[in-house]
Amino acid sequence: MMNRTLTTGVLLPGLLFLLAGCAQSGTAKENGKAPGADVELATEEAKILYALGLSLGGTAKPYDLTPEEVAIVTAGFVDATRNATPRVELQEYGPKIRPLAQQRMAARAENEKSRSADYLAKAAQEKGAEQTASGLIYIEVTKGSGPSPSASDKVKAHYQGTLIDGTVFDSSVERDEPVVFPLTAVIPCWTEGMQKMAVGGKAKLICPSAIAYGDSGRPPAIPPGATLIFEVELLEIPAS
Fold first, then answer.
1. Is-contact 203 232, C-beta < 8 A?
2. Are 155 and 202 part of one and the same domain?
3. Catalytic residue list contains 230
């Protein structure tokens, strides 16, 4: 995923509104609206500034901020844009920012893996399910009649990927565009699972995080520690 750079912007009015909404019971809160919900994007510049807010907010996602913590972060942003005297020493606390993100990401991953445990146990008991030593749960949907790929082959496939709650995070089917890729360049679950298929076949690959994207995930679409479910159709093994 793209790395976003935390930039000091000029989104002061919106952030002040956000701070007020998070730190105290303001009108927006009383009306049941999210802070900033009444901000209008009436001009192209306003839309750019809103995009800046999205970018800044994206950098904070690994921290799983509560509304109260959003207020604290916003206070620091506002102090910086006003050149106010910092309330903490940035040289002391700045180096602690990344470890906090890593700590919270690890906690999210453990929580996600705990949530996935029951799903994986039930999936392994489905009719026709095969669970391999890696943890892959392979369920053949339609048996193919063509050859099977090796780990060094390229494949052409259609697929749809979902989280355990059914959220679709990627789909060549929705794009109506099959993909071609080498099996050496995908997650281990795919490298292993595709070799069990034959051209013309369809299968479900249920991938624990250890053979998917691990404890890092692929934010924002794939949470840390997420189990992934792929419905895959193997269309072709293109010549190298």
1. yes
2. yes
3. yes
19 and 76 together in one domain: yes
- Among candidate residues 17, 77, 138, 213, the one labeled active-site is 213
Tokens of 181: 């890729």
CATH number of the domain residue 216 falls in: 3.10.50.40
Q: Please indicate whether residue 187 is annotated as part of the active site.
A: yes
What pTM was computed for the model? 0.72
The predicted-structure confidence for 8-18, as pLDDT tens digits, reads as follows: 333 333 443 44
Shared-domain flag, residues 130 and 230: yes
* pLDDT, mean of each 10-residue run, the chain (240 residues): 30 39 42 65 92 86 86 91 93 94 90 94 96 97 96 96 96 95 96 97 97 90 95 93
Residue 5 located in a structural domain: no
**Mean pLDDT value across the chain:** 85
Which of 70, 87, 104 corresponds to the end of one domain? 87
The neighbour count for residue 70, using CB atoms within 10 Å, is 20
- Active-site residue flag, 17: no
Q: Which one from 159, 206, 222, 237 is the annotated catalytic residue?
A: 159
* Active-site residue identified among 79, 153, 170, 215: 170
Told to judge if 169 belongs to the known catalytic residues of this protein, a careful annotator would answer yes
Q: Domain range holding 219?
A: 118-236
Structure tokens at 239: 């010549």
Residue 19 domain flag: yes
CA 187 to chain centre: 15
Q: Is 206 designated active site? A: no
Query: Of the candidates 87, 108, 137, which is a domain's last residue?
Result: 87
Integer Cα distance of 132 and 205 in angstroms: 11
Phi, psi for residue 147 in degrees, rounded to 5: -75, 165
Catalytic residue among 17, 77, 139, 187: 187
